[in-house]
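Researcher: Sequence recovery benchmark, item below. Answer with residues only.
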């Protein structure tokens, strides 16, 4: 067993017992990045000297009896969309190739105050739009389970770094599934909190009415530790199990979709059975029309992203990659009436999901309908939609957690848990994790 195979809780225990120092812990992470990242390409900037200096400070604080909490001395990675003072946060775009972040984003300030150690920036699809592309600022990361496959996006490097074992924790953003989709494809845990709970101050925007920030972690418990800090809230009790909880199984929302892999349906049915064996009461439920919810979300993303980027789209050769540019100009055709109707639909869907959650404690369905596609599917340079079930819950703003639920071949699959509170989603995720061994699986070489 190495330091990086310890959970965050066990790392903290080792630090407080004097079995290792924060400096040693940071050095172990940096060594793992040096060894593993050349094959993955998750990190786009590593700040070893700053990390070691922060580690020395954290060690001195612990020795002086100043304990900042469970994340004190714990290294983490940050999506290249979230500002860290003095770091080159560039959103994966040539347009921002010379940008230096002026100050810490509020979520980074909270992580620092909790004693966590930022190690570096991890890749994003350009401006958190679409990918993988061949003409953005840096190449897309490779899936640790199979390098011929994508990681998903846009928090592509965050999920890859956690899955490969370079860090236990990373912070990403999620506008249409960008925390949950790569978590599913890479076999790790990703949480999209409820809308507005984690502040987006200091985060480069995509679609402000849908943008969320969330943790990607090795386990549910570790995601919960990070989320508590990010949200500025107390710790979360994940005990209690599933006995007496009512879970709505939204099977009709994916099982008849021709894009859904047979293995995904089988894995979801198996996961549902595991939840009932662990004490949950399961009932089949219907969701509002998924296609309509996704259409409303797509309108809002395209309209709001265009508004954010319009000042930079002038001239004959805007400095965006082809996929990002095509995605942005798709918003040109939208009218104010389109956007108004989409906002009205979003409010209606939010109320409908709220009503469902008065009848059940949570909703379960797949995070993605397939495993991670191969890079070859994107060889033409055009954006290819990867079928997911994530965007509807950006539209409604509900908390949604993706947890590993098995494999199709060698590639991971994810189950999504949607609830009225993060506490409930995390509790169910932790119980499922305890009842299965999916989260214990790692790519062999890590």
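Model:
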């Amino acid at each position: 067993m190495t330091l990086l195979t310890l959970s965050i809780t066990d790392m903290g225990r080792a630090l407080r017992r004097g079995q290792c120092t924060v400096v040693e812990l940071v050095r172990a992470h940096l060594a793992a990045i040096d060894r593993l990242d050349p094959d993955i390409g998750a990190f786009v900037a590593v700040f070893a000297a700053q990390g070691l200096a922060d580690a020395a400070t954290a060690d001195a604080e612990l020795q002086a009896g100043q304990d900042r909490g469970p994340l004190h001395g714990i290294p983490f990675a940050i999506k290249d969309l979230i500002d860290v003072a003095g770091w080159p946060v560039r959103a994966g775009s040539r347009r921002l190739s010379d940008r230096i972040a002026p100050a810490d984003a509020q979520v980074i300030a909270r992580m620092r105050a909790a004693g966590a150690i930022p190690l570096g920036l991890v890749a994003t699809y350009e401006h958190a739009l679409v990918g993988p592309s061949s003409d953005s600022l840096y190449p897309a990361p490779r899936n640790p389970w199979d390098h011929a496959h994508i990681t998903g996006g846009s928090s592509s490097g965050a999920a890859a770094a956690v899955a490969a074992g370079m860090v236990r924790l990373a912070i990403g953003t999620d506008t249409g599934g960008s925390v949950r989709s790569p978590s599913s494809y890479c076999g790790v845990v990703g949480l999209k909190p409820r809308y507005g709970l984690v502040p987006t101050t200091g985060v480069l925007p995509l679609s402000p009415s849908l943008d969320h920030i969330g943790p990607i972690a090795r386990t549910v418990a570790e995601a919960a530790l990070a989320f508590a800090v990010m949200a500025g809230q107390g710790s979360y009790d994940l005990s209690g199990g599933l006995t007496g909880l009512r879970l709505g199984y939204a099977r009709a929302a994916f099982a008849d979709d021709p894009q859904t892999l047979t293995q995904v349906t089988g894995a979801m049915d198996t996961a549902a059975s595991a939840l009932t064996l662990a004490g949950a009461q399961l009932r089949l439920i219907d969701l509002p029309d998924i296609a309509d919810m996704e259409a409303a979300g797509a309108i809002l993303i395209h309209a709001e992203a265009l508004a954010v980027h319009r000042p930079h789209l002038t001239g004959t050769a805007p400095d965006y990659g082809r996929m990002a540019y095509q995605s942005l100009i798709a918003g040109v055709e939208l009218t104010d009436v389109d956007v108004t109707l989409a906002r009205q639909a979003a409010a209606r869907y939010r109320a409908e999901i709220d009503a469902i959650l008065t009848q059940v404690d949570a909703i379960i369905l797949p995070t993605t309908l397939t495993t991670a596609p191969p890079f070859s599917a994107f060889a033409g340079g055009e954006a290819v939609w990867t079928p997911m079930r994530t965007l509807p819950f950006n539209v409604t703003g509900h908390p949604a957690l993706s947890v590993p639920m098995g494999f199709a071949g060698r590639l991971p699959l994810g189950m999504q848990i949607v609830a009225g509170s993060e506490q409930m989603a995390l509790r169910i995720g932790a119980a499922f994790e305890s009842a299965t061994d999916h989260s214990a699986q790692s790519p062999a070489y890590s």
